[in-house]
Structure formats: structure tokens, C-alpha cells
């Protein structure tokens, strides 16, 4: 979100320290034109930029916050559903469920790989549907997924924790296709992507298998779980770096940041719970 705002400022020839309310007007107008009606995207940008403006004033880079007048009348809708994501225990259960097993048929092998990629890389359903085999690199010490540009989302590369790679490897070995082929084609085809109906069923079956029950049993739960774990891990890294800089000692890298990065790569790091977050535990 922040990158999109910065790109807008660059096209207008202004910077974070110099943009004004007229630039915000044009930016919010662009956001509204690109987003479906009834969403809170504009409101989220207002809140984000208002916090940014207040911070820039606090550190002395700006004299005023031009986003303040947009933020004053802005309020979160009271009927907006709370975000759902797996707590650490349910997340671990899902990782265990997704692991390939001897005797899995082609359908179950595919389903486990779908769950692993959605949760491990935090892909949206549309991104998984469009993924090609060449985009998923699980060989080497840094497994990763390349997500091509889609709409306003720029191309990005997402690290894939090693603990989520075995089911993906099993699917690729069982379903041999050229590197340019779709990673998850529709049943009985090789050139048409799997659609949203079976994707929802695959994720719903996986969540049901680990005892997770919620109003939303779609791929969004796995994406939000990924986002929650990533954000919590970033918070812990920032805390560790603060300690490292404060003490100015290499020992903190060995004792704090090094092991923490290893835990993150393995998908084992979970952070503290923040206010306003909702964790849905297993039934």
C-alpha cells in the first residue's frame, strides 16, 4: 500500500516531506476508481497516510499533516467482520496435514500442495491460479515463489519456508509438465487454471480436517495467517535490531537475530498478539 502511495507522489514530482492535500485528493480519487464499491480500501489508505503524516511531523520532517482533514471524519464501519486467521497450534496442525504421505492419490497430492503454497507463500487465490511451474523454485537453500504482476500489484518474490516445500515437491514429481505449464491446472486439462470453487473446497477440507471452524473457510484465512505471522516476525526482528544497536555487540546477532531468522525460514516463529486481532482456535 505504501509503495503505491509513494509511486503516486513520484509521478506528481513531490516527496513525503512536500506533498499537500491536492496530491492526496488525486490519490484517493485514483484509489476509488480502481477499487470495487463498498470496500474499505480508501479508508485504509486514509488511516495509513494520516499515521505517516503524524510521524513525519513528530520527527521534524514536516510542519503539518495534510492527511488530518481526511482522517477526522473517517471511521471504520461497525459491521466490518473481524479478520480470521489460525493461531499457532492450528497453524502447526495445518502444516502437518499438508505434508505428503505414502499412498496419496493424485487429487490428495495436489490438494496438499495447494494448501502448502497458499499458506507458505501467502498467495491470493488468483495468484495461485495464475502460477506457472517456473515461478515456484523449491531447489536450493532459498525456496521462493515469483508472483507476476497482476493489476495494481507489482511483481514480487516471496520466500517459501522449507517446511512447506515437501508437498509442493511431491506434486511436481507426480505431475510432470513443462516449466511453462500452469502449476495447478484444472482437472483433466493442462492449459486451464483451477477455478475458485475447487480451491475453496480444498482449503475448506483442510481446515475441517484440523478442527478449524469459522464463518470463512476460504483461502483468505491462509493468506491472513501468513500475513499475521510475517508481521509478528518483523516486529521481533525490529526488537532484536534495537537491542543489537543499543548494546553495539556482535553477541546479540548470534544469540537473537541469527536463530530468529532460522525460525522464520522454518515457519516456526510467532509473535505477540496485538490489540484488535482475532485468533480463531481449533474447535
From TrEMBL:
Traced from the root, the source organism's taxonomic lineage reads: Bacteria, Pseudomonadati, Pseudomonadota, Betaproteobacteria, Burkholderiales
Which keywords appear in this protein's UniProt record, sorted alphabetically? DNA recombination
Asked whether the UniProt record includes Zinc among its keywords, one would answer no
User: What name is this protein filed under?
Assistant: Integrase
* InterPro entries to which the protein is assigned, alphabetical: DNA_brk_join_enz (IPR011010), Integrase-like_cat_sf (IPR013762)
Checking SUPFAM superfamilies in the record gives: DNA breaking-rejoining enzymes
Q: Which domain of life does the protein's organism represent?
A: Bacteria
Report the GO molecular function annotations: DNA binding
Biological process annotations from GO = DNA integration; DNA recombination
Amino acid at each position: 500500500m505504501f509503495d503505491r502511495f509513494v509511486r503516486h507522489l513520484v509521478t506528481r514530482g513531490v516527496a513525503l516531506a512536500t506533498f499537500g492535500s491536492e496530491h492526496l485528493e488525486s490519490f484517493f480519487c485514483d484509489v476509488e476508481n480502481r477499487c470495487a464499491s463498498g470496500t474499505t480500501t480508501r479508508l485504509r489508505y486514509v488511516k495509513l497516510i494520516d499515521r505517516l503524516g503524524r510521524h513525519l511531523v513528530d520527527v521534524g520532517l514536516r510542519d503539518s499533516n495534510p492527511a488530518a482533514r481526511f482522517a477526522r471524519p473517517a471511521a471504520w464501519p461497525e459491521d466490518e467482520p473481524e479478520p480470521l486467521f489460525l493461531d499457532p497450534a492450528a497453524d502447526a496442525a495445518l502444516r502437518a496435514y499438508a505434508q505428503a504421505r505414502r499412498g496419496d492419490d493424485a487429487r490428495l497430492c495436489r490438494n496438499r500442495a495447494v494448501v502448502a503454497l497458499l499458506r507458505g507463500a501467502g498467495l491470493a487465490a488468483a495468484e495461485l491460479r495464475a502460477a506457472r511451474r517456473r515461478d515456484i523454485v523449491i531447489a536450493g537453500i532459498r525456496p521462493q515463489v515469483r508472483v507476476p504482476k497482476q493489476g495494481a500489484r507489482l511483481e514480487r518474490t516471496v520466500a517459501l519456508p522449507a517446511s512447506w516445500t515437501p508437498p509442493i515437491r511431491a506434486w511436481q514429481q507426480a505431475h510432470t509438465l513443462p516449466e511453462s505449464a500452469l502449476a495447478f491446472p484444472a482437472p483433466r486439462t493442462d492449459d486451464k487454471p483451477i477455478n475458485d470453487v475447487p480451491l475453496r473446497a480444498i482449503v475448506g477440507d483442510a481446515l475441517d480436517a484440523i478442527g478449524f471452524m469459522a464463518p470463512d473457510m476460504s483461502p483468505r484465512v491462509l493468506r491472513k495467517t501468513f500475513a499475521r505471522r510475517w508481521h509478528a516476525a518483523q516486529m521481533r526482528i525490529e526488537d532484536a535490531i534495537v537491542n543489537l544497536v543499543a548494546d553495539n555487540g556482535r553477541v546479540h546477532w548470534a544469540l537473537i537475530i541469527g536463530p530468529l531468522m532460522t525460525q522464520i525460514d522454518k515457519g516456526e516463529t510467532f509473535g505477540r498478539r496485538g490489540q484488535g486481532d482475532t485468533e480463531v482456535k481449533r474447535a
